[in-house]
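@channel sequence for tomorrow's demo:
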Amino acid sequence: MKRLSIAAMVLGAVGVVTAFVLWQAPADDFLIVPDQAKPLESKVQVEGGHPNATGDVYYVDVYIRRIRTLERLFSFLIPDGTTRVPADALAPAGTTDADRLRQGAEEMSRSQEIASAVALHALGYRGVSATPRGVLVTSVSSDVPAVKVLQPEDVIVSVDGVQVRTPPELRFVMSRHRPGDTVRLTVRRDDKLRRVSVRTVANPADPKRAIIGILVDQDAKIRLPFRIGIDLGKVGGPSAGLPFALEIARQLGRDVTHGCRVAATGELALDGSVLPIGGIKQKTIGARRGHVDFFLVPAGANAQGARKNAHGLTIIPVQSFQQALRRLTTSPLKC
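structure tokens (generated this afternoon):
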């Protein structure tokens, strides 16, 4: 009996170690896991600014990590509200985890600059300038022809001789092409212009649509009349642009909260347009966990996804920062 007990203990220990190893071992897919909405006041510093009203503006983040082998084997171990996605849904093929984190940090930095410029321009401050200079390549998929001629930090300034200054302009010109077409690009690299030809490929999500196989962002020269500092630590990505701009407006005296807890998500374009973001399900859950009163989200599919997961939380769809500012300041919220 004693030998059996020892054997059982050994087997149990082996099982625990095996489970631990399987739990730690990452698999190929990623998990998008909800976080909790957090207030921005201590994260945003506006020179000469201070809020003159109660209430807070909240941002919402998500955790993105590789699924663990044990979670892949036993799906009930995956946290509630989590979405499992393939790696290529988050970044081009060949992107490492280090690349993904670096890109997220760079996107966050650009979103802070753009949000500051958009907010100050909408509030009527002088000395604000935001000049689009082209479409910044942030990543190139390793399995497309473009990888031979494009690289991160290239700035696309024209396609087939047509000037492109923003990502929407690039998408519009590309919509004229079919998969397999060759496009002529003019790119700026190290302050020098280069002309290259790239064969397009089919979009995996829409085989009739031609893509180059790159991730892009806005390249712009931005000047502000005074200092604005934003620091979310290790949080990356561009989707906090809208709450950044709202918090800047709040610290410059605009009552955008009326004593309420207002969460927001959405990437901002230079013209103030609110662009769609990923992880809307998880961000809505995070807004609920933060016990906010209202959640501003990009209009369209994001708003539809937010409403499906709202569970009583009031969702406010917006198309631009200017619209969001008018909605919050001219139609006072009641919470």
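heads up for whoever presents: The mean pLDDT is 88.
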